[in-house]
Amino acid sequence: MLTKVIKKIPIFDGLTEVQIKDLESLFSLCESAEDEVIFNQGDVANNLYLIVDGCVAIRYKPDDGEVLTVSQIEAGGVFGWSAAFGSGYYTSEAYCVRSAKLLSVSGEALKRFHDKQPETGKLILERLAKVIAERLQRAHTHSQVVAMLEYGLTNGVKPLGA
């Protein structure tokens, strides 16, 4: 059953049937309802997620500001990178904008797979890195930060050191 789902995700395009079969044991299929928080900023980063269907917003809350929507990710996208990076905690919140079907893999399972199947593991990591890099290039956080600064200035918030 997971074979069909895995084949829908672009980062797995071109993999052999054997490689896809090997990946099946890593992933779990889960669903999130609209308006559901998948994980909170600061939660222990256990899982990396790939979106099969639906839409997930990545939101960041700075200590001294409003929540920023960093990006919205559609089918084929990846989020929860902190689990793959081994950074310990999620740096942002994942919020389900539209009900979603997700493939989930633990960072530990991904690491074990990479150690056990280095050729396929490296290929998957390279493809994940490409998706992440593309998303970072498209991020619109600059305009959101400008809007926050403008809000602070127009509402009488004094800059640091003033």
Topology summary:
Blueprint: H1 2-7, H2 17-24, E1 28-32, E2 37-39, E3 47-60, E4 68-73, E5 78-79, H3 81-85, E6 93-106, H4 107-116, H5 118-138, H6 141-154
Antiparallel strand pairs: 1-6, 2-6, 3-4, 3-5, 3-6
Helix pairs in contact: 4-5
Structural commentary:
The protein is of the alpha+beta class and 162 residues long. It has one domain (2-135): Jelly Rolls. The protein contains six helices and six strands, in the order H-H-E-E-E-E-E-H-E-H-H-H.
What are the key terms here?
disordered C terminus, Jelly Rolls, 6-stranded antiparallel sheet, alpha+beta, 40% helix, 6 helices
What portion of residues belong to β-strands?
25-35%
Low confidence ranges: 156-162
CATH topology: Jelly Rolls
**Largest sheet, if any?**
6 strands, antiparallel
Q: Give the integer mean of the pLDDT values.
A: 83
- Fourth CATH level, the homologous superfamily: Jelly Rolls
In the CATH hierarchy, what is the class?
Mainly Beta
Global morphology: globular
Q: How many domains is the backbone divided into?
A: 1
Instruction: Please tell me the CATH architecture by its name.
Output: Sandwich
Encode the helix/strand succession as letters: HHEEEEEHEHHH
Discrete helix count: 6
